[in-house]
Amino acid sequence: MLRKDLPPEVREAQEKKLEGLKKQQEIHSRLAVEKKIFLRDRKIKFFERRKIERRIRRLEKMQRTSLGPEQDAAIAEQLSKLKEDLEYVRFFPKTEKYVSLFSGGDDSNMVNRRNGLRKQINANLIAAAASGKDLEESGFCSSSNASSKAIKQVIFGTCSCNLSSNSDVHKPQRKRRPKKKKQQA
After folding, report:
1. What is the value of pTM for the model shown?
2. Which regions of the chain are under pLDDT 50?
3. Which of 71, 125, 142, 155 has the greatest number of beta carbons closer than 10 A?
């Protein structure tokens, strides 16, 4: 590329190759960030999702056995809020640090941040529905395109690349067989 006497065809080929490598590097770094965030936040998100699902089941059971229409309306309102919370946990943006629903208190900054993220998640869901694509859940990919395969490979350790200096990060753990006991004669 630095040589002035390169033919234009070779120069164009080299520039295309360079652009491809830059795109590949960008994808690689984005996947590394997503993996780091996923591994850090997966436990919190799992427990919050379970908590919300239990509350939804409990309210649905109460709704089936409810006596009056005003009690039905209150339960329906609580159910819609819980379903929004479940949506928040499932489709939280992969490139941002998770903001917990149940811890962190009712500080105005936290509430504003959660509400902003809820709006972003709803906008992403609407955009995905309009384009006909499935929005990927954070941490668990649901579509079968190439990027979700790459994300799965990085997250679950089947990737052949080397994202970090520790080369055994992506190698799956080998299962060890139990040692055989020596028979006494």
Report:
1. 0.59
2. 139-156, 159-172
3. 155
Neighbours of 95 (CB within 10 A): 9
Both structure tokens of 79 = 């159910």
78-132 pLDDT, tens digit each = 999 999 999 999 988 888 888 888 887 778 888 888 889 999 988 888 888 888 8
Q: Is 132 left (phi over 0), alpha (psi -120 to 50) or beta?
A: left
* Token couple for 145: 């395109």
- CA pair distance 92, 124, nearest whole angstrom: 10
Two tokens at 57?
Answer: 């089941």
Whether the CB-CB separation of 158 and 164 falls below 8 Å is answered with no
3-state secondary structure the chain: CCCCCCCHHHHHHHHHHHHHHHHHHHHHHHHHHHHHHHHHHHHHHHHHHHHHHHHHHHHHHHHHCCCCHHHHHHHHHHHHHHHHHHHHHHCCCCCCCCCCCCCCCCCHHHHHHHHHHHHHHHHHHHHHHHHCCCCCCCCCCCCCCHHHHHHHHHHHCCCCCCCCCCHHHCCCCCCCCCCCCCCCC
Determine the pLDDT at residue 137. 62
Q: Measured between alpha carbons, how far is 17 from 53 in angstroms, rounded to an integer?
A: 48
Measured CA to CA, the distance from residue 166 to residue 114 in angstroms comes to 35
